[in-house]
Amino acid sequence: MPEGDTIHRLASAMGRDLTGRRLEHLELQHLGTVSELRGARVEQVAAQGKHLLVHLEGDWSLRVHLGMKGRWRRLGPGRPPPGLPTVLIQAGGRQWACVRAYQAELVRTGRLRTHPRLARLGPDLLADEPDIDGAVRRARLPAHAHREIGNALLDQRIAAGIGNVYKSEVLFVRRVHPRTALRALSDDELRGLFAESARLMGANLKTIRRTSVPLQRRPEPGSPRLWVYDRGGKPCLECGGKIERIVQGDLARSTYFCPECQPDAGGGLDPGPA
C-alpha cells in the first residue's frame, strides 16, 4: 500500500500539472462521465495521510484512496487509459488515470472536514508542522494500551501516513521491539517514534527510491537503502545479526526487525483490528 510520502509526492506532481486548468473530462468507474463538472477549474491537489484530494471549482472534491493495488498514471495526450480506470481526469490537455483504487468518490468540499474517512484520521505526519503531541495523545487512549507498537503505528486514527515500510524502519532507528506494548513506552519514546516517522517520510518526498540508511553508510552503489524492511534473514547493517520477520495484527502485516538491536522489553497483546 502506498505510504504517506508517496501520496504527498503524487499530490505535488498532479498539482503542478493540473492546478488552474479546466476539466475537459472527468470519469469515475461507478458514476460514468460527470458531465456537470466539465469546465470546472482544478483549484488544488492535496494529500491528507493516504488520501488524495483534488479540489474543484464549485465546492466539489475528488477523494481517492489507492488501497493495496491502486495506481495513478500520467498519460500522454490522446493515449487511452490502461483497462477500465477507476478515475480518469482530463484537464487543459493533461490526462491522469487511476486504476484499481480502493475508494474514489466526489464529495462536497465544505463537508470534507466531517467526512467519516477523514475526520477520524490522526495528525498528518507530513504536514508543515505535524502535531506530534496530538499523535501521542491519541496513542494514549485506553483502548490502545495493550496493543503492540508494530501494529499501532499503522493505525491511521493515531497518526496518518505511516505504512509498513516506515513502521519497520522507524522501530529499528529508535531501537524499539515491534511487539512492545504501548503501555510499556513512555511519552518521550512515543514522541520519538512519531517525530522520526515524520523526519524519514519528509526526507523521501523528493527522492526516486525510498531511503532510510544515510549515504555515508552506503559504501557501494548497490548497498541497502533500508535498514531492515524486506531484509529478513540478511545481516543487520549495525550489528551483523540476522534480521527477522514477523506478522502482526489481523491483517498479518509483515514487520522486519533486528532482535539484537531491538531487544524485547516485554511484549504486548493486540486485542483486535484498528
Notable traits:
21% helix, globular, 5-stranded antiparallel beta sheet, disordered C terminus, alpha+beta, 11 strands, 4-stranded antiparallel beta sheet, 274 residues
Distance between the termini: 16 Å
Radius of gyration: 20 Å
- Number of separate helices: 6
Largest beta sheet: strand ordering: 2-1-7-8-6
Q: What general form does the structure show?
A: globular
Helix percent reads: 10-25%
Question: What features would you describe in this structure?
Answer:
The protein has helices at residues 4-18, 116-119, 132-139, 149-152, 164-173, 187-203, and strands at 23-28, 32-33, 42-48, 51-56, 60-65, 71-75, 87-91, 94-99, 103-108, 244-248, 253-257. The chain is built from 6 helices and 11 strands. The relative contact order is 0.13. Strands 2-1-7-8-6 form a 5-stranded antiparallel beta sheet, with helices on one face. Strands 3-4-5-9 form a 4-stranded antiparallel beta sheet, covered by helices on one side.
